[in-house]
Amino acid sequence: MSNEYLNKTEEQQFEDAKNWFKENGTPILVAIILVCAASLGWNFWKNHQLETAQKTSASYQRVMESYLQNPNKNQPLVEKFIADNQDSSYATFAQFEQAKQAVEKGDFFAAKVALQSALTQSDSTLKTLARFRLAQVDYQLKSYDEALAGLTQIQDKAWELRKQILIGDILVAKGDKPAAKMAYEQARLNAAPQEQTLIDVRLNNL
């Protein structure tokens, strides 16, 4: 501080402070209010999101329990849950369960429909899982070109091993053994010893 300010009396200092606040107090007060409002709004939004997620999770558990007890009878419950929670990952989980139940019954067309719907999910991990399972279903349906086209869209390196093995299996089914061999050998490069053994069985059977 300057010497001039230090030499002022307490009353003068108070008057200076009062005048400064008159000039600057309103903008500061507004800024404080805005900061508090933003903080309260953020906390409210977080709490709302958490509460919504908890309710969706609980609803998912109830619907799935009913569905698994009697899939045919309670299919409408799942459809309604998916429609009501389209932007939630839980809707995708429900679609995966639908596909699983359909595959267990040998209804690969129904499984394909469920997995195609799951591809609308914005989460990249869930979309990749949906794409891989859809390729497996297309393989069972002998839609080999569709299966291969879907697999080419999977870029996540974590899926490379499973992707290359499935590509090899599809190419074998198509009768293209040289290409299948290349896919299996590519998969083998990223495989653990136990997985290499399973790939070797495939290679030996070509």
Report on this structure:
83% of the residues lie in helices and 0% in strands. It is globular, with a radius of gyration of 31 Å. The model has no long low-confidence stretch (mean pLDDT 80). By secondary structure, it is mainly α. The protein has 10 helices and no strands.
List key phrases describing it.
mainly alpha; 206 residues; YfgM; protein-containing complex binding; globular; transmembrane; 10 helices; chaperone; 83% helix; transmembrane helix
Rg, rounded, reads 31 Å
Distance between the termini: 88 Å
Q: How large is the count of helical segments?
A: 10
Shape: globular
Main pleated sheet: none
Structural class: mainly alpha
Poorly predicted residue ranges:
none
What does the average pLDDT come to? 80
The H/E string reads: HHHHHHHHHH
The level of helicity is: over 70%
**Structure summary, number of beta strands:** 0
TL;DR?
GO terms for molecular function: protein-containing complex binding. By secondary structure, this protein is mainly α. Helices cover 83% and strands 0% of the residues.
